[in-house]
Amino acid sequence: MKQIVLNGTNKSIKLKNDMKKTFYLLLMVLATSFQVMGQKSILTPENNPADKSLIHDETYEMAWYMLMDSSKIEIGKVRTEVQKKKKGIYIISTVEMPNTPTTWIDSTIVGKKNLEPIYHSSFNQQRDMVLNFSDLVTGYYNDKQSGKKTEISESVPPPFL
Predict the structure, then answer these.
(1) Which of 84, 101, 132, 146 has its CA 20 to 30 A from that of 52?
(2) Number of independent structural domains in the chain
(3) In 3D, which of 95, 80, 149 has the Cα closest to residue 125?
(4) Do 140 and 68 share a structural domain?
């Protein structure tokens, strides 16, 4: 600790404590600025930077693989169809897997303007699910394994994506 003489009197100033206070102040300022700069705005239908002009009618297929040890095994094919219609954008995915008697079908409808969710359904051998989006999310979840069907009716704070 260094002593400084002021006006002829011997006043000890604890530079160590002052440096500690300065360090903590600097640390708080930096932490606050990193937090503010690191904050990203929440993605909502109104705050959606997606370039909707790139969305167009198309159909594509993909192979679905599973990795086991060093082997790559194809477990199915996924076909996705995108359709731009008046009501919205429709995305229909069909999954076909060998040795499975049924086809897995997922359907989604989103609004054209903001990509807000309108409808989603999923039907496969294990379960069926339907969701309708508005001020309330309504629909059902049917677990085919247990035979339990759950009705869905949830209010959600809009907007959401």
Answers:
(1) 132
(2) 2
(3) 95
(4) yes
- Render pLDDT for 7-25 as a digit per residue (tens, 0 to 9): 554 444 555 566 667 766 7
pLDDT tens, residue by residue, 24-83: 677 677 766 655 555 566 666 667 677 778 889 999 999 999 998 889 999 999 999 999
Token reading at 134: 């508005």
Q: Hey, which residues does 143 pair with through a beta bridge?
A: 127, 148
Question: What is d(CA 119, CA 59) in angstroms, rounded to the nearest whole number?
Answer: 20
Q: Are residues 69 and 119 in the same domain?
A: yes
Token pair for residue 2?
A: 């260094």
What confidence tens digit (pLDDT) does each residue in 147-161 have? 999 999 999 876 665
Please name every residue paired with 121 in a beta bridge, in sequence order, or none if there are none: 107, 130
73 and 18 in one domain? no
Is residue 92 domain-shared with residue 133, that is, in the same domain? yes
Segments forming the whole domain that contains residue 21: 3-38
- Six-digit token string for 159: 């907007």
- Do 139 and 66 lie in one domain? The reply is yes
